[in-house]
């Protein structure tokens, strides 16, 4: 058995302590959280457009991209860390997705991590599986530890 955890805002010392306390059963994603791998605008557009009643008009990939570009400057999406150029790894992606879902649906649809992150991951696996290469490597590492 093992655990793959979101890095969140843990520093290397905290990560090392958790790995040690877990007797090397804990592993961490390189990005802040799993949702950081799901920020492909085409995937988000496809998922939101598949939700009945999400929007009166289809949401475009360009609209999602513009929304992301506006929001990656918001300090509350990075807190407690600072805004960074490496936003795709450091941003609180679940909060970002929540803002996008709320804004684009005029608050009719709330982002639900268990449901929507699975839909986003499926779309990415079918269309751009390379976006999940880091996750694949972590999973391979976890499986190699167990064999």
Can you give a write-up of this model?
The chain is mainly alpha-helical and 147 residues long. It has helices at 12-21, 41-49, 61-71, 87-90, 93-104, 113-127, 133-146, and strands spanning 3-5, 26-28. It folds into two domains: 1-30, no CATH class; 31-137, no CATH class. It has seven helices and two strands, in the order βαβαααααα. Strands 1-2 form a two-stranded parallel ribbon. Helix 2 (41-49) packs across helix 6 (113-127). The longest helix has 15 residues, at 113-127. The protein is globular.
The level of helicity is: 40-55%
Q: Helix segment count?
A: 7
Assembly context of the chains? single chain
Work out the radius of gyration: 16 Å
Name the poorly predicted regions.
Answer: none
Q: Biggest sheet: strands side by side, in what order?
A: 1-2
Written as H for each helix and E for each strand, in order along the chain, the element string is EHEHHHHHH
Strand content: under 5%
In this structure, how is the largest beta sheet organized? 2 strands, parallel
- Write down the overall geometry: globular
Distance between the termini: 11 Å
Number of E-type strands: 2
Number of domains: 2
Mean pLDDT across every amino acid position: 94
Structure class: mainly alpha
């Amino acid at each position: 058995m093992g655990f793959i955890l979101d890095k969140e805002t843990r520093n290397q010392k905290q990560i090392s302590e958790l790995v040690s306390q877990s007797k090397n059963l804990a592993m961490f994603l390189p990005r802040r959280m799993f949702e950081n791998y799901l920020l492909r605008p085409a995937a988000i557009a496809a998922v939101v457009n598949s939700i009945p009643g999400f929007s009166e008009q289809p949401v475009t990939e360009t609209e999602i991209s513009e929304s992301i570009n506006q929001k990656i400057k918001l300090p509350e999406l990075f807190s407690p860390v600072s805004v960074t150029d490496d936003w795709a790894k450091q941003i609180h992606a679940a909060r970002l997705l929540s803002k996008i879902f709320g804004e684009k649906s005029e608050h009719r649809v709330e982002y639900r991590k268990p449901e929507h992150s699975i839909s986003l991951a499926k779309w990415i696996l079918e269309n751009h599986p390379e976006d999940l290469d880091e996750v694949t490597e972590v999973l391979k590492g976890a499986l190699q530890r167990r064999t």
